[in-house]
Design a protein that fits this description.
single chain; about 180 residues; alpha+beta; Ribosomal Protein S8, Chain: A, domain 1; 2 domains; 3-stranded antiparallel beta sheet; globular
Length: about 180
């Protein structure tokens, strides 16, 4: 299997890593071959294993959307970990993009940190996108919280929503015992 993904110019160095160590680590952990064109930003992935083929794509997309390589590599460690990318241009006009990104991040990064801490997810606000890495249920709740912020909900309302959802998730996990 083979696919090409375009990575922003300023993220190519992060994907390759110092002396190629990030690229090599991804290849070693997945058995996939990655070819990066630093001139065009095109990353070619070749892989025999279909699951690793999909995982490598997610890792590269995560790095391309602003995550550091260690955070992106979480997508390889646990099959329950997923990547969700929200394209803000689908919901916001270009002139409101910076304001909405500011709402999602919050004053001094407080809102983003709150979502990350309550749901145990990682969030990257990069370019015109918001990317989330975590378990599927937490990522879905984080997406809902981000959508609330995009639609203009107050930070306090979103915080109450997150705390309620965290309690629900916790109660469900206790049901297993």
């Amino acid at each position: 299997m083979e696919i090409e993904i375009v990575v922003p110019e300023d993220r190519i160095g992060v994907l390759i890593g110092k002396e190629g160590e990030v690229k090599e680590r991804i290849e070693k952990e997945t058995g996939c071959k990655i070819n990066v064109s630093s001139k065009t930003g095109v990353v070619k992935i070749q892989c025999e294993d279909p699951i690793n083929f999909l995982r490598v794509q997610d890792v590269i997309k995560a790095i391309a959307h602003g995550f550091n390589p260690d955070t992106a590599m979480k997508l390889l460690q646990d099959e329950m970990t997923v990547l969700e990318i929200i394209d803000l241009t689908s919901y916001v006009s270009p002139k409101h993009l910076e304001r909405i990104k500011g709402r999602i991040i919050g004053k001094e990064g407080k809102m983003r940190r709150l979502i990350e801490d309550i749901l145990n997810v990682n969030i990257s606000v990069y370019g015109k996108t918001v990317a989330i890495i975590g378990d599927a249920e937490s990522v879905a709740v984080a997406r809902e919280a981000i959508m609330m912020l995009i639609e203009g909900a107050q930070h306090s309302t979103v915080q109450r929503f997150l705390e309620r959802k965290r309690r629900e998730i916790k109660m469900r996990s206790l049901d297993w015992f």
